[in-house]
């Protein structure tokens, strides 16, 4: 089934044509692609402990009130019959890349807004194909080649297209013809407009405003007096005005990993294992993305929710044997042994393109070849297939690839000594 909005008007073929693609319940769809028994059943992905949060929920689970960022304990109360899955970051990244490659091969400019969201500029294609017809064929190609459901919205700008995609879901499409933006948006809840979060919505509710159409009738000056400079942006978006450009290159500035323990702990061995597993996984992610880090940060949150962090600048690297001692040293300077630990985290910033270079005074070809061999196996079988023995303690669970990438095969263990 398709939904086509043109409100009786013919689209202006000379205007802008911006499309927004969104993979439906993406993490759930990835899990269903490898396990069809999950189809049509409530599925919830996220931390499996009571302190965990919901990362994604299937549409079947959402009917019970479950949504992303919800406390997992609450989700279990709302939908106890759901299938709970910890998640598999490696799998989701791989399937996202499949969609990215199809889009970049078929479109001149693509912006990857997130792992499951994409924008593209189709302006001018009406002269040759017809933007809507081309978009439908491209959506069909993605579904056919990846097996993943995907929706899109097509309009003259990013805001209207994103809202249209939300209205098209699940697994459908909407075209909002040029000149029909205000008519399309008017009956929708103000919460559908990007930038309108819970607090902003509460303010609108106090003003008796819940639909976009009422904002369209408000004077711009009134919006600015209530919401400040954001009031102008919200008013423009409600009126279908958005000049945001497509940004084809999103340079990632940092990568990080955090672990919240199911129970606050003093266990030094478990904490060390957690940190080591984080560094090993993040270093692998750097090398896989041909990135080097120059800033290392460690974070600790205690049982009283006080959070502290330390960071240090280093020479650009992606080598475990350099990053692990650095992170350990930072943690020891930060850690207060008198207070229970609730969360630990590691972050690598200052990312730059590049491959790990041999240190002519310390490294040997054996070191570099070891990393290449390890990473080649991880790329083929999953993040956890090659691991240091020191990362197999209780503190390493939930770090990196959460699934079972080696299908029951035991991981290769390394007793590699760090300088």
TrEMBL record:
Mg(2+) binds at residues 22, 116. HAMAP family: DNApol_IV. The active site is at residue 117. GO terms for biological process: DNA repair; DNA-templated DNA replication; error-prone translesion synthesis; SOS response. Poorly processive, error-prone DNA polymerase involved in untargeted mutagenesis. Copies undamaged DNA at stalled replication forks, which arise in vivo from mismatched or misaligned primer ends. These misaligned primers can be extended by PolIV. Exhibits no 3'-5' exonuclease (proofreading) activity. May be involved in translesional synthesis, in conjunction with the beta clamp from PolIII. Signal peptide: none annotated. It is found in: Cytoplasm. Monomer. The record marks 27 as: Substrate discrimination. The keyword Cytoplasm applies. The keyword Magnesium applies. PANTHER family: DNA POLYMERASE KAPPA, DNA REPAIR POLYMERASE UMUC / TRANSFERASE FAMILY MEMBER. Its EC number is 2.7.7.7. It comes from the Bacteria. Binds 2 magnesium ions per subunit. Its main location: cytoplasm. Keywords: Cytoplasm, DNA damage, DNA repair, DNA replication, DNA-binding, DNA-directed DNA polymerase, Magnesium, Metal-binding, Mutator protein, Nucleotidyltransferase, Transferase. Belongs to the DNA polymerase type-Y family. Its cofactor is Mg(2+). Residues 396-419 are annotated as: Disordered. PROSITE patterns: UMUC. This is DNA polymerase IV. Residues 18-197 form the UmuC domain. It comes from Aequorivita sublithincola (strain DSM 14238 / LMG 21431 / ACAM 643 / 9-3). InterPro entries: DNA/RNA_pol_sf (IPR043502), DNA_pol_Y-fam_lit_finger_sf (IPR036775), DNA_pol_Y-fam_little_finger (IPR017961), DNA_polymerase-Y (IPR050116), DNApol_IV (IPR022880), Rev_trsase/Diguanyl_cyclase (IPR043128), UmuC (IPR001126).
């Amino acid at each position: 089934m398709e939904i086509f909005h043109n409100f009786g008007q013919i689209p202006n073929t000379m205007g802008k044509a911006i499309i927004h693609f969104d993979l439906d319940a993406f993490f759930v769809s990835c899990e269903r692609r490898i396990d069809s028994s999950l189809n049509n059943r409530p599925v919830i992905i996220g931390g499996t402990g009571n302190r965990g949060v919901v990362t994604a929920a299937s549409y079947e689970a959402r009917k019970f009130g479950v949504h992303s960022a919800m406390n997992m304990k609450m989700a279990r109360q709302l939908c106890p019959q759901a299938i709970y899955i910890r998640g598999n970051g490696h799998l989701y990244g791989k399937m996202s890349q499949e969609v990215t490659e199809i889009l970049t091969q078929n479109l001149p400019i693509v912006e990857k807004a997130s792992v499951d969201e994409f924008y593209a500029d189709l302006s001018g294609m009406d002269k040759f194909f017809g933007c809507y017809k081309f978009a439908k064929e491209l959506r069909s190609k993605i579904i056919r080649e990846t097996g993943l459901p995907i929706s899109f919205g097509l309009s003259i700008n990013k805001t209207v297209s994103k809202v249209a995609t939300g209205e098209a879901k699940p697994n459908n499409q909407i075209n909002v013809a040029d000149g029909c933006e205000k008519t399309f948006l008017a009956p929708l809840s103000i919460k559908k407009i990007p930038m309108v979060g819970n607090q902003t919505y509460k303010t609108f509710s106090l003003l008796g405003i819940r639909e976009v159409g009422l904002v369209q009738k408000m004077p711009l000056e009134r919006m600015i007096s209530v919401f400040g400079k954001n009031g102008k942006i919200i008013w423009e978006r409600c009126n279908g005005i958005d000049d945001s450009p497509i940004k084809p290159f999103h340079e990632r500035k940092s990568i990080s990993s955090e672990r919240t323990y199911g129970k606050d702990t003093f266990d030094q061995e478990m904490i060390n294992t957690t940190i080591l597993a984080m560094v090993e996984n993040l270093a692998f992610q750097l090398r896989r993305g041909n990135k080097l880090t120059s800033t290392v940060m460690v974070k600790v949150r205690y049982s009283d929710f006080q959070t502290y962090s330390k960071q240090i600048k280093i020479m650009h690297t992606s080598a475990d044997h350099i990053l692990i001692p650095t992170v350990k040293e930072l943690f020891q300077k930060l850690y207060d042994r008198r207070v229970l630990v609730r969360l630990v985290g590691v972050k690598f910033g200052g990312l730059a393109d590049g491959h790990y270079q041999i240190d002519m005074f310390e490294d040997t070809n054996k070191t570099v070849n070891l990393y290449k061999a390890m990473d080649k196996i991880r790329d083929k079988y999953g993040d956890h297939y090659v691991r240091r023995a020191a990362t197999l303690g209780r503190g390493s669970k939930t770090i990196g690839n959460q699934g079972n990438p080696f299908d029951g095969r035991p991981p290769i263990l390394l007793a590699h000594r760090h300088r």
